[in-house]
């Protein structure tokens, strides 16, 4: 199990509102600071394929905006490379010269059966939502009694053809404008509307549309960023991973 922390210095400073007084407290970011998030990762130690072929291991990642596969894969590759800095073996193809090797991590996703079945059973993606969190210190009226906290851009899907490619091309455009969250809207054949969170990286879009997810309930409050592993959550993640593994 791992607890990974990620700090994004490009996100807007957080604002905290009081439900009773409607007062908003802003937390400005100082130099070399950013918005921090954390996510738990549980990795199976039993390979899904025999050792004679390339082994693959099931992994369960806590879904956290801004901490998707596009962030984790480079991080894990760097960590594995540093750990294996002294690993070396003779190369039989090069006169047994000693060469250094290190594992290379590749993260792939299992199909999301629920979403895939609903789309194949007559469901359809209806649109996407881009979210931008706004740090409005002055308000939009003369008394500053109304403050803007979030902007949402809703895009309607008029065709299913090439929709993933289209939204992937739009992500850099909205990311540059300060939008930090993306959600997909879809409906099943009975017309029931659903919304699912996505990341703001191109590979995260594919993960959300194709990646399998499990709903886990925690018996304690989860912070946006943890410094220590939440064992009660990890226990449930391990159980979900074992179920997916068929134990």
Tell me about this structure.
The protein is of the alpha+beta class and 247 residues long. It folds into two domains: 1-108 and 215-247, no CATH class; 111-211, no CATH class. The protein contains five helices and eleven strands. The chain has helices at 69-83, 113-120, 163-176, 202-210, 231-245; strands at residues 2-8, 15-17, 24-26, 35-43, 59-61, 88-91, 97-100, 124-133, 150-156, 181-187, 193-198. It has a four-stranded antiparallel β-sheet. It has a three-stranded antiparallel β-sheet with strand order 1-4-5. Strands 2-3 form a two-stranded antiparallel ribbon. Helix 3 crosses helix 4 (202-210). The longest helix is centred in the N-terminal third of the chain and has 15 residues, at 69-83. The chain is globular.
**CA(first)-CA(last) distance:** 18 Å
Q: In terms of structural class, how would the helical and strand content be classed?
A: alpha+beta
Strand content: 25-35%
Q: What's the story with the biggest beta sheet?
A: 4 strands, antiparallel
Helix content: 10-25%
* Rg estimate, integer Å: 22 Å
User: Count the helices. How many?
Assistant: 5
Poorly predicted runs: none
Number of strands: 11
What spatial order of strands do you see in the largest sheet?
9-8-10-11
Order of helices and strands: EEEEEHEEHEEHEEHH
């Amino acid at each position: 199990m791992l607890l990974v922390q990620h700090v994004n210095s490009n996100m807007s400073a957080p604002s905290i509102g009081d439900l009773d007084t409607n007062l908003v407290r802003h937390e400005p970011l100082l130099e070399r600071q950013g918005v921090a998030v954390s996510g738990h990762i549980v990795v199976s130690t039993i390979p899904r394929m025999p050792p004679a072929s390339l082994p693959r291991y099931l992994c369960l990642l806590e879904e956290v905006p801004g901490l998707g596969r596009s962030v984790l894969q480079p991080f894990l590759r760097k960590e594995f490379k540093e750990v294996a800095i002294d690993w070396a073996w003779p190369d039989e193809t090069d006169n047994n010269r000693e060469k250094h090797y290190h594992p290379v991590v590749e993260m792939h996703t299992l199909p999301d059966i629920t979403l895939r079945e609903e789309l194949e059973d007559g469901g359809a993606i209806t649109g996407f939502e881009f979210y931008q969190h706004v740090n409005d210190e002055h308000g939009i009226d003369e008394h500053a009694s109304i403050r803007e906290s979030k902007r949402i851009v809703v895009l309607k899907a008029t065709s299913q053809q090439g929709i993933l490619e289209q939204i992937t091309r739009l992500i850099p455009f909205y990311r540059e404008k300060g939008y930090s969250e993306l959600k997909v809207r879809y409906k099943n054949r009975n017309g029931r509307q659903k919304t699912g969170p996505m990341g703001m990286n191109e590979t995260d879009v594919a993960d959300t549309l194709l990646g399998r997810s499990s709903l886990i309930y925690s018996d304690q409050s989860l912070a946006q960023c943890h410094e220590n592993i939440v064992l009660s959550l990890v226990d449930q993640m391990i159980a979900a991973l074992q179920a997916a593994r068929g134990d």
